[in-house]
Amino acid sequence: MTRKRRPSVPPLVRPPPTGGRPNNRLLAALPADAFHRLLPHLKTIPTRPKLVVLKEGDLIEQVYFPNGGVFSVTTPLSDGTAIEVATIGDEGMLGTEAFLTDDAVSTGDTMLQVPDGQVTMLAVQAFRHEVAQRGVLHDLIGRYTQVLMAQMARTTACNALHEVQRRCARWLLMTHDRMHEQDFHLSHEFLAVMLGVQRPTVSIVAATLQRAGLISYHQGLVSILDRKGLEAASCECYTLIRAQFDRLRQ
């Protein structure tokens, strides 16, 4: 029996623009017929820093496909703090809970942390209808959901066990992958939330990475100066998350 070839999850390298398509790589990977079925239901809006698209416990009425920038899914705690469990850019989708069930609710808060570009919205009804056809969109989102779950599991373990400097290097590498640029804007406040630490700790960690010549961080602008060195400074979680992504897209 011939094994059915699985659709590829797009890699972490931005492809050339596709005529008339959003930059999101899941949408760009759809065949023409599937994309044109969705097209009347797609709405692309500009993004801004701190844009919240989903709140924990809210009914998901739209799913979102980032065309740039970096969104973070965070778990809020009763004392007002929060910690990141997933990083999502133009390789993915926000609101994957809607892939699993009707009347899905958000399991975390999803906010734009590093702005760049736009986000494309799709009503859940249209999304669920297309997924129910069990075609390419169903397979792509199913495989992407596996990637996201693997990232969440690894991030949870990393946050619990690894020292903050190595976690910071991992987070900067994951953001660098999604921004496709050497420089990106990031506040101390956001980075503190991502790492689950206080802002003074972020300052100390950033200064350490700067003294090592790995990054430059001035007035909210991060520049990756030594990518290989930053990978060496990271815990193993970056390599494992990236390998999981690469393996699932084959």
Describe this structure in words.
By secondary structure, the chain is α+β, with helices and mostly antiparallel strands. It has ten helices and ten strands. It has a four-stranded antiparallel beta sheet. The longest helix has 26 residues, at 136-161. The model is unreliable at 1-18 (pLDDT under 50).
Low-confidence stretches are 1-18
| Biggest sheet statistics | 4 strands, antiparallel
What share of residues are in beta strands? 15-25%
Q: How do the strands line up in the largest sheet? A: 2-6-4-5
Helix- and strand-based class? alpha+beta
Helix and strand arrangement:
Blueprint: H1 25-28, H2 32-38, E1 42-46, E2 52-54, E3 62-66, E4 70-76, E5 82-88, H3 97-100, E6 109-114, E7 118-123, H4 124-131, H5 136-161, H6 164-179, E8 183-185, H7 188-195, H8 199-211, E9 215-218, E10 221-224, H9 227-233, H10 237-248
Helix pairs in contact: 5-10, 6-8, 6-9, 7-8
